[in-house]
């Protein structure tokens, strides 16, 4: 059997894959099994921050693999300690818990909020409020947090203690909070899976102020928006807010599984021995990869992410068949006149890999994609949108 047949026969049918088999790549170019080359405008859904097989990233991973590839969390290892220091120094947060995915990073955030609220406001204060149209992961609890009913249907009963309200509607949130049972509000500054929708900065500031006044935690899901994706280290930094908890994953380790939950001073001591844990969390190879990614996200580099975003958006803006551009930085949503799936299929036939998010074409290129590839990809996308 070939790969398509093996996959269809032996892998659970959760993924609707595009009909190509990727075998290799370099930077923002990938090759399929037939030798056809594509410009990668998805970077593994915002994971390969510096593209495929980046030399600096390989060197960091390789060096650590030759030293020790895994140690249990019963012993100290330097890569995760140094990564935690780098994340705290760059964000002003106080402590980090490492895991292996976005869903786990959010699970930890939810656990931290529940424990903090129980200790500080009483056991009845346990509700986590999220936004409608949000996405927070696929575990049962992060599905419960996800404010989209269609994700919930198959898996009842869900974890109790979640509620959601529409972005922008502070009055709706105030109603939810009036009983004194809300522990925390969890938001994505740019809703990725929800269609690349950036929250209104005025709303986010008001939300922050209201929550601070009510002593309710503000938690930001930076799983997709984090690690340079929007032109700042974390998207919340562009919104002028100070979250109590930040979760991240996807691009953090540039292509290895790693999640991180950052805790502010207020929650620095929330976890004691045995309160939470993970076998693989803080794995030294993933941590060494992440340390190399994070140390490259300098102010100058992030400025260049913003410049690339402006270049790409300028090329696509007002083109025939493009109705709107959304998102922030190199997290780009394109509202197309044609169905997004047809645009994506056309782009693939012409050597450009794009993603979808709801009714939009979604672009999440590597943060260091060369300008000439960005320009070539924009040409192909424009042609497909204009058909
Ligand atoms: C992808 C994503 C998640 C889930 O991450 P996994 O690593 O797939 O568990 C959670 N939140 C947001 C905002 C995401 O984009």
Question: What's this, in brief?
Answer:
The protein is an alpha/beta fold and 387 residues long. The chain is built from 12 helices and 17 strands.
Helix content bin: 25-40%
Alpha carbon gap, first and last residue = 37 Å
Poorly predicted tracts of residues: none
**Order of strands in the sheet with the most strands?**
4-12-11-10-7-5-6
Structure report:
The chain is of the alpha/beta class. It contains twelve helices and 17 strands. The chain has helices at residues 3-10, 43-46, 55-67, 78-91, 102-121, 140-145, 170-177, 201-214, 284-296, 299-316, 340-349, 371-386, and strands at 22-26, 29-32, 37-40, 95-99, 127-131, 162-165, 182-187, 190-191, 197-198, 217-221, 245-248, 259-263, 322-328, 331-336, 352-353, 355-357, 360-363. The strands form four sheets. It has a seven-stranded mixed sheet with strand order 4-12-11-10-7-5-6, sandwiched between helices. The chain has a four-stranded mixed sheet with strand order 1-2-3-15. β5 (127-131), α6 (140-145) and β6 form a beta-alpha-beta unit. α3 (55-67) runs antiparallel to α9 (284-296), α4 packs parallel to α9 and α10 (299-316) packs parallel to α12 (371-386). The model has no long low-confidence stretch (mean pLDDT 98). Pyridoxal-5'-phosphate binds next to α5. Residues 101-103, 106, 135-137, 188, 192-193, 221, 223-224, 249-250 line the site of pyridoxal-5'-phosphate.
């Amino acid at each position: 059997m070939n790969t398509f047949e093996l996959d269809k026969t032996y892998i659970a049918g959760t993924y609707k894959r595009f009909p190509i088999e990727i075998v290799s790549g370099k930077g923002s170019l990938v090759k399929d099994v037939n030798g056809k080359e594509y410009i990668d405008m998805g970077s593994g859904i915002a994971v390969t921050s510096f593209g495929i097989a980046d030399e600096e990233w390989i060197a960091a991973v390789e060096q650590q693999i030759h030293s020790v590839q895994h140690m249990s969390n019963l012993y100290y290892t330097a890569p995760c300690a140094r990564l935690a220091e780098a994340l705290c120094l760059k964000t002003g947060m106080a402590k980090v818990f490492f895991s292996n995915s976005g869903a786990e990073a959010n699970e930890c955030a939810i656990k931290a909020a529940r424990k903090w609220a129980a200790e500080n406001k009483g056991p009845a204060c346990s509700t986590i409020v999220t936004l409608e149209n949000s996405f927070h992961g696929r575990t049962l609890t992060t599905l419960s947090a996800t404010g989209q009913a269609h994700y919930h249907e198959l898996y009842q009963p869900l974890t109790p203690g979640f509620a959601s309200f529409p972005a922008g509607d502070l009055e709706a949130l105030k109603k939810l909070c009036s009983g004194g049972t809300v522990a925390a509000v969890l938001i994505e500054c740019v809703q990725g899976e929800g269609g690349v929708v950036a929250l209104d900065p005025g709303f986010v500031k008001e939300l922050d102020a209201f929550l601070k006044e009510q002593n309710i935690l503000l938690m930001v899901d930076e799983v997709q928006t984090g690690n340079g994706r929007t032109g700042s280290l974390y998207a919340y930094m562009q919104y002028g807010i100070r979250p109590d908890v930040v979760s991240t994953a996807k691009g953090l380790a540039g292509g290895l599984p790693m999640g991180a939950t950052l805790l502010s001073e207020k929650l620095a001591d929330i976890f004691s021995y045995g309160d939470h844990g993970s076998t693989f969390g803080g794995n030294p190879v993933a941590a060494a990869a992440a340390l190399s990614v994070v140390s490259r996200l300098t102010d100058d580099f992030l400025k260049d992410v913003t410049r690339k975003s402006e270049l790409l958006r300028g090329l696509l803006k007002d083109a025939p068949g493009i109705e709107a551009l959304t998102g922030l930085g190199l997290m780009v949503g394109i509202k197309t006149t044609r169905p997004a799936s047809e645009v994506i299929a056309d782009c693939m036939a012409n050597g450009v890999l794009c993603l979808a998010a709801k009714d939009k074409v979604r672009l999440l290129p590597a943060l260091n994609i060369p300008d000439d590839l960005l320009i070539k990809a924009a040409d192909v996308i424009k042609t497909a949108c204009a058909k």
